[in-house]
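hey so u asked for the seq, here:
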Amino acid sequence: MIHFVYLKFQLINNQFWQAAKAIINPRGPLFELAREQAKMKSKFTMSSSQSGIPRNDETKYQRQFMGSLAEIYVEAYLNELLTERNLKNHFLVQRYDNVRTDGFKSAINEYDLKIVNKKTRQDFTIESRSSIAYNRSIIKAIEQFDIIGPYSSTAKGNEKYNDFYIRPLYEVARKEQANYKANNFEKLVSSGAINLYIAGGCLKKDMLEKSYQKSMSQNNTLYTVVKIIKGYDAIKFKTELTNKIIKEKYLLRH
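ran it, structure tokens below
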């Protein structure tokens, strides 16, 4: 099943950028999985955001749903990559929330996704952090937003680097932007008023060499980020990822 269409945008600097737009079926299995997992995860979500803002149960659920839906479509994007490059027999995509055994209670040894070598069981870790562009177009978001890397905070300390970073972005339809509220997120996605894009991504090397620090308006939290346009678009990222998993010690042996 195809889960994306690829759109080409012309950015302000005349650069062309390709993003993968998700084909979301609100009655389909991916949507339902996001709902189920968000309900379970929100039970154990902190009552305040990282910036200290209190969150009620509905807000916690909506935030978890936003992240879960994006991750699930990142998994679909990676599976499509393996199929396109004839790598399905050698590698698999593993999403932590699908295999975890702790009932969503613990963050110990947590990760977003991995690409695993079926033979050696060695893996690459993949970070997926989504955001919503509720007050601008997807083109402006690609031009202005960052790929989010590791962060440090008083609560969590320093995160380790992942092998790959993928940037999902949600775009709110222009007619809904003025009235957008976070607690209406699922309803707006269901109605087609919010679209999801895989905007692009980068490698660990890019996060080490091209990054800068940003607070992102969250108290005592500092993120390492790379501008989206300094990374790779949704097509080029597939090539970079494929080259990386085949090149090093994960090299396929026929």
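Residues 4-102+111-247 form one domain. The chain has one domain: 4-102+111-247.
lmk if thats what u needed
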